[in-house]
Amino acid sequence: MSIAQRQASGVNYGNVVFTGASTVAAAPLVLDPRTHLNISAPPAIAGNYQYGTAGFGPTARVQNFHGNVVVSQDASDAAGPSTTDGCSPFTNAAAVAGNIAVVDRGTCGFVVKVLNAQAAGATGVIVANNAAGPAPGLGGNDPAITIPTISLSQADGALVKGNSGVVAAIQATGTGLQGADDAGRPRLFMPNPVQPGSSGSHFDTNLLPNALMEPSINDSLNAAMFIDSSANLLQDTGWTLNKGPAYINGCNTEVTIIDDAGLIVGANIIATSNLIAATSANKTAYMARMEAYRNSLLAANLITGRQGGKVMQCAGKITSLAKN
């Protein structure tokens, strides 16, 4: 590519993808079906819109994100100078209740805005971007949030705020994967304008489920058990993955260390066995704790009954404990 082509590619949001064979093969094992935000009314702005996802609260899905859209109103005060930034308790809570609230990005954190919307009775939140560029990923963490949140670009947010009677819903497109192009290749994060340190070095924020290699940390990640396509990406760039079985105490548990979809149950078993061995007073205590851990894996459907039996058989082969 020429310098000009690379410069254009660096801000070509949604159209730059990772083509590594391992990552592309894993995409259908990891990513959700593709969705969009469908606006069905009013007719002037009806259509499908790309949206950004939040790293807090429940994921916005077909089942939980639909309804009438109401622009929030709150006081212009020390918490936030705008009357639509959602930084203070809503003054139009009666209108918001039972509907999707729209708030503007800026001044306070995303979780503050969403908690204020939730307190007003909103069923979901749309955060309208306050700067040019694609719909952003929304970072933050608060376990008190129980409603889904998405973001829209500044231009799309202006359309929603500028019209009354807006009805919106997350809908499945029927084809494709969320965060991948039509060929199933995961998108890379290439916003316009460039975000130094994030552009090109992460998966797109549009991926669902959220991935370790997205630009922001999301509380929906469970990296102790699942590292999604990040391991496949590393493999495509030259790393070697150990996809063999997990051994503890010199014994084969028959649980794969890491599988093609990024589940690292075997790696977790090795690490947990080592930790329990290092913090147990004796073999009896070690076995009891390993049994409880094995039961948790079974309850989560992460291992089979046979594998659970092998884990305990291998645990029983321990010969020494590292005391604190």
Automatic annotation (TrEMBL):
Residues 80-158 form the PA domain. The keyword Signal applies. The keyword Signal applies. Keywords: Glycoprotein, Signal. InterPro entries: PA_dom_sf, PA_domain. This is PA domain-containing protein. It comes from Noviluteimonas lactosilytica. The lineage of its organism: Bacteria, Pseudomonadati, Pseudomonadota, Gammaproteobacteria, Lysobacterales.
